[in-house]
Design goal:
The protein is mainly alpha-helical. It is 70% helix and 0% strand.
């Protein structure tokens, strides 16, 4: 992708995250949460302005590692209404889903690849949160999700599909048609 298009896409992605943060700010339950959201918006706008002012845009725009773990901030520190907006479920339901998928994904389902490479496996709730964020419309695309959550492009893909595959395996257990007498009218 040409640098100009890549820069424009990134600016659009930052704009989308600013809009999400503005919604979270409006939904904040108290002044402290609102202040955190306002600081997040200011930081994003500063990045956007700096990108507009510079003619240089790095070709390898990987997420990298930073001191701030955005995903954990969303999960643990955002108010309930903002959490619901980002992940399309209440926090209590999220932790119930994590429990169900953790039990269903035993035997190295979540972390066998990391262990084979000698890396430390990521926490299961992070896999599920990334999938919910992307599928719930918070991210919209893998690129936007990558930028918003500060993780790698391939990581978004792997986390989302691991979660979807496990949910698909659990489908017969949680979604079933009624028994024969009730099934006839349907």
């Amino acid at each position: 992708m040409p640098r100009k298009l890549e820069k424009a896409q990134t600016l659009d992605d930052i704009d989308a995250v600013v809009k999400i943060s503005a919604c979270s700010c409006l939904l904040a339950s108290d002044a402290e949460d609102q202040e955190v959201e306002e600081e997040h918006i200011e930081d994003l706008l500063e990045v956007q302005v700096s990108l507009l002012l510079t003619g240089i845009f790095p070709h390898d725009a990987s997420a990298g590692r930073h001191d701030i773990d955005i995903l954990n901030t969303y999960i643990y520190e955002y108010p309930e209404t903002a959490f619901l907006t980002l992940f399309r479920m209440h926090r209590a339901s999220f932790w119930q889903l994590v429990k169900i998928l953790t039990q269903a994904g035993r035997g190295g389902y979540w972390d066998h690849r990391a262990i084979e490479r000698g890396a430390s496996p990521k926490l299961i709730y992070q896999h599920i949160a990334v999938a919910l964020y992307m599928l719930g419309g918070g991210g919209g695309t893998r690129e936007r999700t990558r930028i918003a959550l500060n993780i790698g492009f391939g990581t978004v893909w792997k986390y989302t599909w691991r979660t979807i595959e496990l949910l698909y395996r659990l489908l017969p257990e949680y979604v079933c048609w009624p028994h024969h007498p009730v099934n006839e009218p349907i």
